[in-house]
Amino acid sequence: MATTTSDTLLEDLSIPHERNVPLGPLTWYGLGGSAEYLAHPSSVQQLSALAARCHETDTPVYVLGSGANLLVADRGVRGVVVQLDDPCFKQIKIEGTRVTSGAGYDLAKLVLDTARAGLAGLECLAGIPASVGGAVRMNAGGAFGCIGNAVRRVMVCDARGQVYYRSRDDLEFGYRRTNIVARYILDIEFELSPSGADGLMQRVKEIFRLKKSSQPLAEHSAGCVFKNPPPTPCSESEEPPPTAGQLIDRAGLKALRVGGAEVSSRHANFVVAHPGCTADDVLTLVGRVQSRVADRFGVKLEREIVVWP
What we know:
The protein is α+β, with helices and mostly antiparallel strands. The protein has helices at residues 44-56, 107-116, 132-137, 197-214, 244-250, 279-297, and strands spanning 17-22, 34-39, 61-64, 70-72, 77-83, 92-95, 98-102, 119-120, 141-142, 145-146, 151-157, 163-167, 173-174, 177-178, 184-191, 193-194, 257-258, 261-263, 271-273, 306-308. β9 and β10 (145-146) form a beta hairpin. 39% of the residues are buried.
């Protein structure tokens, strides 16, 4: 990928960074091109300075968490990819029922930490791969509950480098969304409830077993590809609308394949990548699934995975 960003963009900020870094190995799909710059700020102050510099120079910026719901285009991305992998963004503190986690902390570890501490509220997220910041950004969750229910306060940094807090009274969480518009989530405070550690750990194991039995967790994928369609307005039916996976299955699309990309035969809302797969294979297959479901059921499936750029 051609370099277009100024060579001095990061050097004079003394921010650890690398040039032309393949992003595929940093994502669960394992696909896609390179980042022109991959930056690793080592403090909130460095991140703030980086954000301000990129805003001033109109440089594209992307924030990389665990790469679990991300597909990077084969051509890669121009600009700066920011990874909050420094220890300062991966701290956790437990004080009574209040738990504070850095955005770079691993969600699976947080679930186990809080369950073992006898704190209920996050065990519903067992089996969901994500950084804590990424999980809050998309209000990660499912049939057992969502992370937004436990969030009390969030520290964020906007595109201009301004750092501030968003508290519970002005936060909104919906299906795979929040009203947090700031580009960077830095720190999250949770309010949990005391409960028995043994029971919570049993619940974590139970939820994980259920997901492992129905999802292709051992294969290269980015989790659910599509959001579940919302209920039809004014519908008199008490039955919940079919999920995205059910629609794809009913359209006969399990095992549909484009190149190295295939609709999972285990769970139709997963697209798995086989050896030789490209990001273009996945995108082409996703488009075909959307088209077939729209033709068959009149439902336009909306992507849940994030595609760069």
